[in-house]
Amino acid sequence: MTELLSAPAFMLWGSPVSWLELVASTLALAMVGCNMREIHWGWPLAIVSSVLYVAVFAKARIYGDASLQVFFALVALWGWAQWLRGHRADGSALRVSRLSSRGIALTLLACALAWPAVALFLRRFTDTDVPWWDGFATGLSLVGQFLLGRKFIENWLIWLAVNVVSVGLFIHKGLWLTVGLYAVFAVLSVAGYLAWRQRMPSSAAAAVRA
């Protein structure tokens, strides 16, 4: 089965696209579509897609993103539970909301710390040739995943930054199908933000605590 999934499905701009990458990208697109509509089935799709992408990224020596997929698969269980039974600090139901000013500051701080921390780890302990770009995508994705699980609309802005940088990273690695996927993800990040803004109840227009 592993050999079959690793076999080329077709060629794209001179680089082979494996069945593994094809299936993983299809599931990832379905996942984002579910997230945009607040459909909780996006989380199990995230688990399967992430497990497949571990192999895709490890083969390309993008170890930060490969490790991130393991994290995504685990955190997806938490996110699924949050969307099914989660609530705010005040006990209210978990609905689409904005971060408070304090929440925004903490989010920016988390991004500023996660990027160099992950990049320096990758530079020290792996043979990746793109530690800082890989570290950026990995570090900010950790923050974005938390905001998504807690239904904060700002998660889409984090994903936009991650997806734009990832496009350049995957171009460098020749993962052309994934380049196209993340370009679509970048567009969907904007669409997701607009969709969640429309879905946001008037009572959630004010910023709330996590």
Automatic annotation (TrEMBL):
Source domain of life: Bacteria
Record's GO cellular component terms: plasma membrane
Pfam family, one: NMN_transporter
Topological relation to the membrane, as annotated: Multi-pass membrane protein
Subcellular location: Cell membrane
GO MF annotations, alphabetized: nicotinamide riboside transmembrane transporter activity
InterPro entries to which the protein is assigned, alphabetical: NMN_transpt_PnuC (IPR006419)
Transmembrane segments: 12-34, 41-60, 66-84, 104-125, 179-196
Keywords linked to the UniProt accession: Cell membrane, Membrane, Transmembrane, Transmembrane helix, Transport
Entry function: Required for nicotinamide riboside transport across the inner membrane.
Family: Belongs to the nicotinamide ribonucleoside (NR) uptake permease (TC 4.B.1) family.
Name of the protein in its database record: Nicotinamide riboside transporter PnuC
Organism this protein belongs to: Variovorax guangxiensis
